[in-house]
Design a protein that fits this description.
The chain has six helices and seven strands, in the order βαβααβαβββαβα. Helix 2 packs across helix 3 (68-86). 39% of the residues lie in helices and 21% in strands. It has a single domain (2-194), classed as 3-Layer(aba) Sandwich (Rossmann fold), CATH 3.40.50.360. The protein has helices spanning 17-32, 53-60, 68-86, 103-112, 152-163, 183-194, and strands spanning 2-8, 36-42, 89-95, 119-122, 125-128, 135-140, 169-174. The chain is an alpha/beta fold. Helix 5 (152-163) links the parallel strand 6 and strand 7 (169-174).
């Protein structure tokens, strides 16, 4: 049985364009993989707490030395990682807010990117420790920005995923969604790419 992890980060929930495009993709994927399951991690409805000194300390404290409160932080991070590792396919809804990702999505990444757990430093550089699998990035933007290097949104996410070993990345961009003369064509192009 195949498993798909859907990471939602739109502040608008299911009304967000990234969530709607991801929903179309997941519906088709589920039909093509009838013996499958979907895990949904909605970071807007159930946000992962932002990283602070306590949470960072908890994630870096050896297990034998953790307090109960620190262990609760690690348990959440381990749960998020277990969802990633259990998935054959990952779909990340990636709306752009102020040239970057939603802060809720960054918090999710902050709890995943853990030295010795999801990556390690070696003499030859960084090795990602998560076994590679397809990751679909569904980027939505109100304006038109062209190449992915023009914002921090895509480069940040791609680099962080690769850092943890997730290199099989497929990017679909729908931009100009706040512009009447671009919106419909952009959504149609994104739907075709996802198909």
């Amino acid at each position: 049985m195949k498993t798909l992890l859907h990471v939602k980060s739109s502040l608008f929930g299911d009304q967000g364009q990234s969530a709607q495009l991801a929903g179309s993709f997941i519906s088709r994927w589920s039909q093509e993989n009838s013996d499958s399951s979907v895990i949904e991690r909605d970071l807007a409805a159930d946000p992962v707490p932002h990283l602070d000194a306590f949470r960072m300390g908890a994630l870096n404290t050896p297990q034998a030395e953790r307090s109960a409160e620190q262990q609760a932080v690690v348990d959440l991070a381990d749960q998020l990682l277990a969802e990633v590792k259990s998935a054959d396919v990952i779909v990340i809804g990636l709306p752009m807010y102020n040239f970057s990702v939603p802060s809720q999505l960054k918090s999710w990444f902050d709890h995943l990117a853990r030295a010795g757990v999801t990556f390690q430093y070696t003499e030859t550089g960084v090795d990602g420790l998560i076994e590679d699998r397809p990751v679909y990035l569904i980027s939505t933007r109100g304006g038109v920005y062209g190449d992915e290097g023009s914002t921090m949104q895509i480069s940040y996410v791609k680099q962080l995923l690769s850092f943890m070993g997730l290199n099989n990345q497929q990017l679909v961009v729908a931009e100009g969604l706040a512009m009447d003369d671009h919106r419909d064509a952009a959504l149609e192009k994104a739907r075709a790419a996802l198909a």
